[in-house]
Fold this sequence. Notes:
By secondary structure, the protein is an alpha+beta fold. It is built from 10 helices and 22 strands.
Amino acid sequence: MKTPLQLGTAKIDITPSKPVPLAGFAHRTGPFEHIAHPLYARIHCLEQSDGSEGKTAALLISADLIWWGTDLVMKLIPQLKDRYGFQTVLLHATHTHSGPQTSGCFTEALGKPDPDYWEELEQRLLAGIEQALQNREPVTIERGVGQCRVGVNRRKEIDGRIKMAPNENGPVDSDVTVLRFRAVNGGWIKGLLVHYTCHPTTTGDNEISSEYCGVALDRIEQALGNNIVGAFLQGCCGDIRPELVGDDEFYRGHRMEVERFGSWLSEEVLRINSLPMDELTPTDLKSKTLVVPLPFESLPSVIELEAQADQTDIYGEWARLLLNQPERRQESIPLEITRLDLAEELSLVTFNAEMVVNYGFVVRDASLGRMLPLGYTNGMIGYVPTTEQLAQGGYESRDSVPYFGLPSPFAPQTEDIICSAIYQLIGEEPNYE
């Protein structure tokens, strides 16, 4: 018989203590002006004994950040593993575009990092982990599924070109999956994970906001009470955006729209929570990671970069970045895919990238619904599109490349490489019928 999974939780305020630049939109300048919704890191420490003196421990942190920069992750994860004995660490971001930059790897158009905030963030995380480790207790896991339509596909062909516009006929993942952790002793809800797939880009105002996903979690925690700690798990939302549409075009909202979408999601989660949910079968708490090199289409020459380096636009900044850091001009970049098993019927599959929604469907379909795909985990390499999207063009496949400091778009075989890795990690052979 499997030993019970133990869970410890904490919710830590990670709002910057001073105004800093926000990440995600090039149009914002200067430090943030207001705090609309505080930012939090929601911490879940998982542990399982092997029946003797050994144990397996995993750390899942979902933070109201745009991402965890690869440079920050390379510092934090070894430290957390060494200090606390975690075998698996998943640093996940909700992907709000109304929080500080946590990477020094990209062009400043995506937001200038603040070193003081990084230090502040690290110290708060350590305090939160200590708190979570102190309240661990045995739990069971239950799952329920519903639907919410905040998002819409944002890739649409107009006049022969792919533009960022609402595409009602494009793929979208409207599933809301709720994972509920109940204390074995007393049956009360200790933790709640909410998985959904949509960019938190409702607003572009120059103010701090945890966006619709943070607003939803705050409302859920308040409604359920008993100091429950939830967490938002962002899916493969690379080409999914909030459906704020007027005259067949997107527009940015403000606090009111953030609150509205947060209300939609929280209401659906609370509805799911009020219904009977499926109790999942305990399994060994274990993980597996694959690192897959994703090839680039081509590499720019030094002569080509020097010709653009004097430009004042994003391409000039990109060229200077690649000239100053020649190690970026590699033939591939590593995509890290991690599988964490929580129950016989449930695993998390994470990516250190902005994966488009099709890859989420691959994970879900190949695993027969047993696995939930998460982007924005343990680093960030940029957008990862499909083969078709690479051929079509558009922001996710080509226009975003200079912002992330990549040498070029990915090669056409990228999708096949990723799908093969997903099938390998899941342990299933692809079905091409």
